[in-house]
Amino acid sequence: MEQKEMIDLLRQVASGTMDVEQAALKLKEEPFEDLGFAKIDHHRAMRQGVAEVIYGEGKTPEQIFRIAEAMKEKGQKAVLITRMNKESAIYVGERLELQYDEVSRIGFIGEAPIKDGDGKIVVATGGTSDIPVAEEAARTAETLGNEVIRLYDVGVAGVHRLLGHLDELMEARVIIAVAGMEGALASVIGGLVDCPVIAVPTSVGYGASFGGVSALLSMLNSCASGVSVVNIDNGFGAGFLASRINHIERRTKE
Asked: Where is the signal peptide (predicted)?
């Protein structure tokens, strides 16, 4: 149940078109559903404004399908699936109308969202090898109702490539900086703009990068103010947080 649906339910009670017992039963049925191997949090959207997201890695194709099917049956209009492999995408796609992107490993079922964010989210990468993580962030933000601008392969090894996009950077409401190696991109961007910068270290790099730990530590030690950091390769977390920031003004008005 989404927040708007809960408000409609309460208005029906207030107007007398639904009695208290019916409303109480509906709310009682909603909190979670036990499938045996998973307990689906149907109240997530009501509490947090965004429905539960399916983390596909480690789940079988059938498990992903059953969870998604249960969500749709409960009235969830859109289902987002992260870290979904191609085998699972084929299985689920044969049973539900699935949109799947192999680069980001993002699956999406349901209605295309309205872009109702306050501004634009820019997703920038240090290199081409960072694009899978960046696309996870970008597509997550898009499925949560945001306009996303992509600036790929603009790392500090050729910083003029980044400076050629100053207009897009300055106009952004939030910027997601995705980089491996030494992870310097986030600090450079953070020193240029007045909006929040979400840094995503990636596991891209040679041996001494330690699978992204080097970039993570660099980003955590950034001297640029306004830079926050999510976990290594966590494009989803960055996209979700960027969406939250980009919807603050709208939620305040409501």
From this structure: none
CA distance 14 to 228: 43
Q: d(Cα 143, Cα 112) in Å, to the nearest integer?
A: 7
CA dihedral (14, 17, 21, 24) positive or negative:
negative
CA gap 204, 183 in Å, rounded: 10
Residue 20 burial class via C-beta count within 10 angstroms: exposed 0-12, middle 13-18, buried 19 and up: exposed
Domains (range + CATH), the chain:
31-110 (no CATH), 120-252 (3.40.50.1970)
**What totals of helices (H) and strands (E) does the chain contain, helices first?**
12, 11
pLDDT tens for 185-237 read 999 999 999 999 999 999 999 999 999 999 999 999 999 999 999 999 999 99
